[in-house]
């Protein structure tokens, strides 16, 4: 094998077994292999960790998967292991497709392995079915903001928005490049962004694959096995009605359902508790929650005076970039929405961004992706900038 300007012999035993390849790659179809670039001369090893050679700085290789914290790459048709912190990506996330929970998990692991110097990956809890809920921080800023997506299952395109932000912002950060008018590294080293790209992985899995559909989910779906309209978590609680923003007076369906049931009490669900407990450990300057219906922004939950002025100003600057309309205050006092809980509890801006035109009870068509991305690509940096000033 030739790597850089040297020739190496790689023993057959170093290669990934066909079985392992099939297991790991089966759920990553379409997301690999992706090209990565050596940031330094980077050793490559066999499965047991024996050094086989090194890849010259600047050389491009194909990343096929991650395994035990290491990258599995292909060199001239053979698979070997590398420490991904010696590499950087070019374009990791392909966003114009449905992104599964497994693929989301894969991407955020890849980013955290590639960029340990300015990212941090945390498990913040687990879903009803036991899928870990992840938060990925980018930047070394002491101040922090948080963004989340896919609290409503059928709104899973919002996960694509956050993953593509992570992809492009980390690319700009590591390469010292500007993103639009933003100096990404300087900004994120003032204000870090925590991303929770998929709040409701069980629901998203149900919508995308039906792999976890049961007699119980069918019942909650009014007897239908068309799960495209599913919003709730897997046991029929609408997570965005389960937070305590005056939960007690929030209207609700009476029983668990594919939508609109607020649960037996505030924070009855492991997914909402995970976010609550994670937020409690931080001092977030703002919270941007991504949803997908109606091309509108929500910012109001009974704030007054300077708090109201500040939050409306942030909503207005997001409106200016996205073109989304700002929803006027309603008379509703109680809420189970995560952003309303955040506003009430932390007295900081909580903005709900609805990325797509009204769809009715179904997933957002991928034909909207390009325009949605164009509208939202700078919103993380916009929110970080706003937070940096206070
Ligand atoms: Zn929603």
Automatic annotation (TrEMBL):
Residues spanning the membrane: none
One of the record's GO molecular function terms: metallocarboxypeptidase activity
Similarity annotation: Belongs to the peptidase M14 family.
GO cellular component: extracellular space
Enzyme class: hydrolase
Catalytic reaction equation(s): Releases a C-terminal residue, which may be hydrophobic or positively charged
Protein name: carboxypeptidase T
Record-level GO BP terms: proteolysis
Keyword Signal: yes
Active site: 354
Cofactor(s) listed: Zn(2+)
Classification lineage: Bacteria, Bacillati, Bacillota, Bacilli, Bacillales
Alphabetized InterPro entries for the sequence: CARBOXYPEPT_ZN_1 (IPR057246), Peptidase_M14 (IPR000834)
Segments forming domain Peptidase M14: 97-383
Pfam families hit by this protein: Peptidase_M14
N-terminal signal peptide: none
Keywords (A to Z) from UniProt: Carboxypeptidase, Hydrolase, Metal-binding, Metalloprotease, Protease, Signal, Zinc
Enzyme Commission identifier(s): 3.4.17.18
PANTHER family: PROTEASE FAMILY M14 CARBOXYPEPTIDASE A,B, SLL0236 PROTEIN
């Amino acid at each position: 094998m030739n790597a850089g300007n040297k020739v190496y012999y790689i023993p057959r035993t170093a290669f990934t077994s066909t079985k392992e390849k099939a297991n790991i790659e089966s759920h990553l179809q379409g997301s690999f292999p992706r090209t990565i670039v050596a940031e330094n001369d980077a050793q490559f090893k066999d499965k047991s960790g024996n050094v086989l050679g090194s890849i010259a700085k600047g050389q491009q290789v194909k990343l096929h998967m991650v395994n035990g914290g290491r990258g599995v790459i292909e060199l001239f048709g053979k698979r070997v292991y590398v420490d991904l912190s010696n590499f950087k990506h070019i374009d990791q996330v392909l966003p114009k497709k449905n992104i599964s929970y497994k693929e989301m998990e894969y991407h955020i692991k890849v980013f955290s392995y590639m960029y340990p110097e300015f990212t941090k990956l945390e498990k913040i809890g687990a879903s009803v079915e036991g899928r870990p809920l992840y938060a990925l921080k980018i930047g070394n800023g002491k101040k922090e903001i948080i963004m989340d997506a896919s609290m409503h299952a059928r709104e899973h395109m919002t996960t694509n928005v956050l993953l593509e932000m992570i992809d492009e912002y980390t690319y700009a950060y590591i390469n010292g490049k500007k993103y639009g008018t933003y100096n990404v590294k300087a900004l994120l080293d003032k204000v870090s962004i925590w991303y929770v790209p998929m709040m409701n992985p069980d629901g998203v899995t149900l919508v995308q694959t039906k792999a976890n559909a049961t007699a119980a989910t069918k019942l909650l779906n009014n007897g239908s096995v068309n799960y495209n309209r599913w919003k709730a978590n897997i046991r029929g609680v609408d997570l965005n009605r389960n937070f305590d923003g005056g939960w007690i007076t929030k209207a609700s369906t009476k029983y668990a359902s594919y939508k609109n049931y607020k649960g037996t009490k505030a924070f009855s669900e492991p997914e909402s508790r995970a976010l609550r407990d994670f937020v409690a450990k931080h001092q977030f300057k703002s919270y941007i929650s991504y949803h997908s219906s109606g091309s509108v922004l929500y910012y109001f939950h009974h704030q007054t005076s300077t708090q109201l002025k500040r939050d409306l100003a942030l909503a207005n600057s997001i409106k200016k970039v996205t073109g989304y309309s700002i929803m006027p205050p309603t008379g509703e006092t109680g809420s189970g929405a995560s952003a309303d809980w955040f506003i009430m509890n932390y007295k900081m801006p909580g903005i709900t961004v609805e990325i797509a035109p009204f769809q009715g009870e179904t997933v957002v068509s991928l034909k909207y992706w390009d325009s949605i991305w164009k509208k939202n690509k700078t919103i993380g940096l916009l929110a970080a900038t706003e937070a940096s000033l206070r």
